[in-house]
Amino acid sequence: MIQTINPNPRYNMKKVFGFIVSLYFFSSAFSQKITAEQYIKTYKENAIREMKRMGVPAAITLAQGLLETENGNSDLLKKSNNHFGIKCKSSWTAEGVSHDDDAIGECFRTYKDAEGSYRDHSNYLRGNDRYAFLFKLDPKDYKGWAYGLKKAGYATNPRYPDILIKNIEENNLQQYTMVAVNDVPFFDASKYQSDPEEKAFTEIVKSKGSANTQPVKFVSNTPEEKIDINGSKAIYETKGRSLLAIAIENNINLNKLLEYNDLQKDGLLEDDQFIFLEKKQKEGDKDIYIVQNNESLYDIAQKNGIRLQNLYVYNELKEGEKIVAGSKLKLKSATKEQTVPVKQTLEITKVKIYAVQPKEGLYTISKKYGVTVAQLKEWNNLTDDNLKVGQQLIVSK
Predict the structure, then answer these.
(1) N- or C-end of the chain: fewer Cβ atoms within 10 A?
(2) What mean pLDDT do residues 252-262 have?
(3) Which of 324, 329, 320 is nearest to 300 (CA)?
(4) 40 neighbors 175 (Cβ within 8 angstroms)
(5) Rounded-to-integer distance, Cα 166 and Cα 3, Å
(6) For residue 91, pLDDT beyond 90
């Protein structure tokens, strides 16, 4: 077929100009990078879920993901869905991809999606003897984990621990560890056997009248996502999620879901929070709860799996009444030992709470608030001078 050229030069110039503009926008869109904030928002639920499943702190997982993928922009990630730079090794029998790292053309593991990479990362750490000692650490000890990973040989970069710690502190990743810290599994790493993704996320369904089987993928919430809080089942949901969608996914009447969670109307969640899938308990699993900064009674009720109305009654509070950080709230009905109403405690106990910042010690904080180190230790029941970033301290009484 012979192609004719339009003799009008203005027409041809328009075509060339249009092609150049299209090429520019295509290349710009292709090269656009995501931010650390966008990476965290996208994958934080994977990290939380894996912490509950295997015990790797969510803050550490996200910090490694940020570092290994260059905030989600690395070439390796784009061609392999490998978020943690895990190489093939002799034990890897699935697909791999060639990528230059310590040596040219090394083999890195390939995954079909991010979830597969996050699961394999947890399995890799939990199932490897080199990392067994890490699971004896407090899951909130992100510095211990960071230095421990380097010690165990996870990376060759001498600054690896410092970069992880910086990622955690600058992006407040510790908050995601705190979400799952009460649900970390406890088991002997030496007895752990690998939990392949396909085995964990498929079920065998037999056809009627036939011995044939086929794998069927789970598309709804898996059992590991549901947790027990004070004897009631709950699930952690993120800001912006529809309550109606949550009700449908969990086969619960919407009005019942609202009732279980002390909510008055349907809509979108305003904050990340626990959503209960059955009635909360009338009493907490402990007697007293210390109010944290910026916590409402509703937050405390959800965190402790207790009905909001009971919380008001036990503490002789009126609806909408404000509470003070550092105050003690009753989570159970009054006993003979608990003779002083908590409402009086709220009025009597005037304390100031401070969250420890990076590189701060007791001496620095004592000078900031005009108190002594001895007072800080006494008020906070401290036996040594060690502090953790984000730790809540009473700094004034």
Answers:
(1) N
(2) 92
(3) 329
(4) no
(5) 61
(6) no
Residue 356 to residue 222: CA distance in whole angstroms: 36
SS3 106: strand
Tokens of 63: 């910090």
Q: Output the six-digit token pair for 359.
A: 């590189």
What is the residue whose two structure tokens read 């509950």?
52
Lowest model confidence (mean pLDDT) among 27-41, 137-151, 195-209, 340-354: 195-209
Shared-domain flag, residues 233 and 161: no
Q: What is the rounded CA–CA span in Å between residue 315 and residue 309?
A: 10
8 Å CB contact between 107 and 88: yes
Give the other-Cβ count within 10 Å of 312's Cβ.
16
CA distance 124 to 120: 6
Buried b (16+ CB within 10 A) or exposed e, 344-353: ebbeeeeeeb
Q: How many residues does the chain have?
A: 397
Residue at 188: amino acid letter: D
Residues 184, 40, single domain; the answer is: yes
Please name the amino acid found at residue 251: N
Mean pLDDT of 171-186: 87
Residue 371 sits at the vertex; the CA angle it makes with 366 and 372, to the nearest 5 degrees, is 75
**354-367 pLDDT per residue, tens:** 777 776 788 778 87
Q: Considering 257, 280, 303, which residue would you say is the last residue of a domain?
A: 280
CA–CA separation, 25 vs 8, rounded Å? 27
Residue 267 sits in which domain range?
217-280
16 part of a folded domain: no
In terms of domains, do 69 and 181 share one? yes
- β-pairing, 96-99 with 106-109? antiparallel
Tell me how many domains the chain contains. 4
